[in-house]
Amino acid sequence: MVDRLVNSEANARRIAMVENCFGSSGRPLAEQGRVLVGEGVLTKMCRKKPKARQFFLFNDILVYGNIVINKKKYNKQHLIPLETVKLESLKDEGQFRNGWLIRTASKSFAVYAATSTEKEEWMAHIEKCIEDLLRKSGKQPPSEHAAVWVPDNEAAICMHCKKTQFTVLNRRHHCRKCGSVVCGPCSSKRFVLPTQSDKPLRVCLQCYDELTRDRARPAQAQQPAILSPGKEGAGSGESSGDDDSDDDDDRAAATDNHDEPKFYGDGEKTDDTNNHSSKETQVKQ
Predict the structure, then answer these.
(1) CB-based burial of residue 245 (10 Å sphere; 0-12 exposed, 13-18 middle, 19+ buried)?
(2) pTM score of the predicted model
């Protein structure tokens, strides 16, 4: 079905509409052979709390962004190459149901669908796209993935020293290696994690010790840069939030209305479930 949609006018129109919704803040999405497979709203587990995000699944990338005006305008566009993605289903726990992890070498996070059926649809379509990509390219999936960050509200005290209580002055930080919430003194060291950045990143003392022991290996031959707590960015410097740019500013976040996700080509649902159906109708007229 994807092959049949590659050169279709409907596919080109859909991709143009997605580009238009992101405006000048987004990157161009129209490329030869690219197909918009599906779209819909998922709840992304952000650093501070779960937030609704608009997701677009293409046959080679996953795109998501903040909802400024539902179905009309999104910002803070994120592009994830599907070749780097590994999915991991999550068990239902309390209010968090129908979730799974999206793991990549540079960033990993949890998302949640509104129903179990939608979770199955999303995961099946993403897995199929990944499978097709890897088969065509002959590449192997990445063996290393970034840690999923522990949400701020799940750690009242430092997860490393088990002593420091977080306050306005004692701020939370995240270890970029294991994802734990730690205090400043327990994350005063930095280490180059090549899959995430070419600059040294904040890591907890335990991960720093482990990385230092392993640095003689070819893949980790780069020397770590050590910073004392007092030399980190003053005030708003390097807190956990600046690596999760879609975690702030929700001026017009999600509405309470839930639209089912739209997946193109697999027994096409009615147009009124399409996030952009009204615009498509106007174009056709």
Answers:
(1) exposed
(2) 0.77
